[in-house]
Each structure stands twice: as structure tokens, then as C-alpha cells.
Specification:
Layout: H1 2-11, H2 41-48, H3 76-88, H4 105-110, E1 123-124, E2 132-133, H5 138-152
Antiparallel strand pairs: 1-2
Helix pairs in contact: 3-5
Length: about 170
């Protein structure tokens, strides 16, 4: 069942750097996520290199990475703005991290829309039984997002209104 969970994680591109217990290089079977950078080639090779260990069992790997990589430079300007706003609001500095997972933000970033993924609630243990939210940080994070939206939203061009009158 653990291998199935690992496969589902890889197939949906959510946890591309987690190996089954005993297969990775670190505690709890975690492998080096830096190998995911560059399109997930190493993760893909490792999964396709798995072999069935149960006599009579067969292992068939289908599918693969479903989202384009989110390149940090595609949103560097937006991240810099968010970091400045956090400082202006007296919040702790924002940290950019590459985690090797994926979200729908990968699609928006790939078409040139500056995208910040992970600016929601602050906490830890994402997508696990131990996931939590730091409630004390919800209001400050909401202030940051509100300010970021206000500074980046598009304002309508002056011109005729819906009824054709200015």
C-alpha cells in the first residue's frame, strides 16, 4: 500500500520527492528533493526503475509528470513586492523555497502570469496527518495578501460605462 501511495503522489505531482520508507536517503524514506529541479527527470527515472518484489507480481508504470516546472525567475518581481510589503507591515521576512511539488500555479507561471504559490495560511506538515495552521499568524498573513492584491490589481481604463454613457 505504501508503494501505491507513493505512486499516487508522483502521478499527481504533489510530492515528487518522497520515497517509500527504506528507499530514500534520509529519515522516513525521504530522498533529496533538489534532484526534482530540472523537470523531475531523476524522480521519473527512479519510479520507472522500480521492480516488483513479490513472486508472480508485475509492476507497470504509466503516466508521468503532469505540470510544467515553476521557474523562480518567472515570479521574482512579484515575490520582491510581497517581501517589501511584509517588511512594511512589520512581518517576518518571506522565504522563497523550491519544494519539488506542484500546484495549478505551475500552469499560470508557465504562461507568463507571475504566480506565488504558498502564500496562504502559515503552518506546517502540508498534506499530512500532522498538518496544522498557526492561528496567530492568520490575520497578519491576510493583511499581507490584501495589500498585495491592492497593489497588483488591474484598474479599469477610463471610458464609457456599460450603458454607453461616460
Amino acid at each position: 500500500m505504501q508503494s501505491s501511495r507513493w505512486w499516487n503522489a508522483w502521478r499527481t505531482s504533489k510530492v515528487g520527492c518522497t520515497a517509500p520508507p527504506g528507499r530514500g536517503t534520509g529519515r522516513a524514506g525521504r530522498s533529496d528533493c533538489s534532484s526534482y529541479q530540472g523537470g523531475g527527470r531523476v524522480v521519473d527515472e527512479r519510479i520507472r526503475g522500480l521492480t516488483a518484489r513479490t513472486p508472480g507480481a508485475r509492476l507497470e508504470v504509466r503516466g508521468g509528470r503532469q505540470r510544467p516546472p515553476m521557474e523562480p525567475e518567472s515570479s521574482a518581481e512579484l515575490f520582491a513586492l510581497a517581501a517589501r510589503l511584509a517588511a512594511e507591515l512589520g512581518q517576518e521576512p518571506l522565504r522563497g523555497t523550491a519544494v519539488g511539488g506542484a500546484s495549478d500555479g505551475n500552469y499560470t507561471a508557465a504562461v507568463g502570469c507571475p504566480t506565488l504559490d504558498g502564500l496562504g495560511a502559515v503552518g506546517g506538515g502540508a498534506h499530512a496527518d500532522t498538518e496544522y495552521v498557526d492561528i496567530a499568524r492568520m490575520v497578519p498573513r491576510t493583511r499581507l495578501l490584501t495589500e498585495l492584491i491592492a497593489r497588483t490589481r488591474r484598474r479599469p481604463e477610463p471610458g464609457p460605462t456599460r450603458g454607453g454613457m461616460s
